[in-house]
Amino acid sequence: MKVVVVGSGTAGSNFALFMRKLDRKAEITVIGKEPTMQYSPCALPHVISGTIEKPEDVIVFPNEFYEKQKIKLMLGTEVKSIDRERKVVITDKGEVPYDKLVLAVGSKAFVPPIKGVENEGVFTLKSLDDVRKIKAYIAERKPKKAVVIGAGLIGLEGAEAFAKLGMEVLVVELMDRLMPTMLDKDTAKLVQEKMEKHGVSFRFGVGVNEIIGSPVKAIKIGDEEVEADLVLV
Fold first, then answer.
1. Which long-range CB contacts under 8 A does 73-76 form with residues at least 24 apart?
2. Residue 42 has pLDDT above 90, yes or no
3. How far apart are the first and last CA of the chain?
4. Phi, psi (rounded to 5 degrees) for 119
5. Which CATH architecture has domain 2-103?
6. pLDDT, position 41
7. Domain with CATH 3.50.50.60 in the chain
8. Alpha-carbon separation of residue 218 from 140, 142, 156, 208 (angstroms)
9. Could you give phi then psi for residue 186, rounded to 5 degrees?
10. How far is CA 48 from CA 11, 92, 124, 134, 218, in A?
11. Active site positions, annotated
């Protein structure tokens, strides 16, 4: 039996390993757009801050581990389409036949429709590739003022990482508190006070309507311009 898994993240990696336990003879192939298998996304901000030295240190198992389990890896490969009648996955490196197909493609970062969001110096924090781009930008530009748009978990972890690097950090959140879908007001206030002691400031109940400059040099909140040389969305 040929089992093809599209997606090399947590779900895809764990499914492939579990499938191998269930069937020692199945031909298992994992197709992933990223060059590595499963890694810990929660650790990504710690790579930015330098608490974790190298991006590779957040990878759960090296590629060789899966290959020893006789799991074929097609990493750095993009799936173009699926032909369900012929039972083949069509990739940028050719066709891959399957008997059973598992889609474990995960999610992608939401990028708000803000003018200038495509400018240089504006980043998401979702993947190892994002981390490498942010670290390279910091090394080259040495930003002093970072703005984080959104006070969710990823945004706050990014803000903490930038603060550890000595940046002046502002978090802008449309709602009236940080992590509004996860914390009540009292708990959110405690987290806010803790982060403020670490050099992170907050603006609640407002949104960013424009990112100015490429490389970025400021954001606009209404008619107010706020200096920034790095933006995380």
1. 73/8, 73/29, 73/30, 73/32, 73/37, 74/29, 74/30, 74/31, 74/32, 75/8, 75/30, 75/32, 75/34, 75/35, 75/36, 75/37, 76/32, 76/33, 76/34, 76/35
2. no
3. 43
4. -70, 160
5. 3-Layer(bba) Sandwich (3.50)
6. 86
7. 2-103, 122-232
8. 18, 15, 20, 11
9. -65, -45
10. 25, 31, 13, 7, 22
11. 42
Report the alpha-carbon distance of residue 78 to residue 91 in Å, rounded: 6
User: By C-alpha distance, which of 92, 95, 75 is closest to 83?
Assistant: 95
Whose tokens are 């799991």? That residue is 71
- Report the CATH fold assignment for 122-232: FAD/NAD(P)-binding domain (3.50.50)
For the stretch 165-191, pLDDT in tens is 999 999 999 999 999 999 999 999 999
Element (H or E) spanning 159, and its range? helix 153-164
- pLDDT tens digits along 87-128: 999 999 999 999 999 999 988 888 999 999 999 999 999 999
Residue range 62-77: average pLDDT?
Answer: 95
> Which amino acid is present at 184?
D
Average pLDDT, the chain: 95
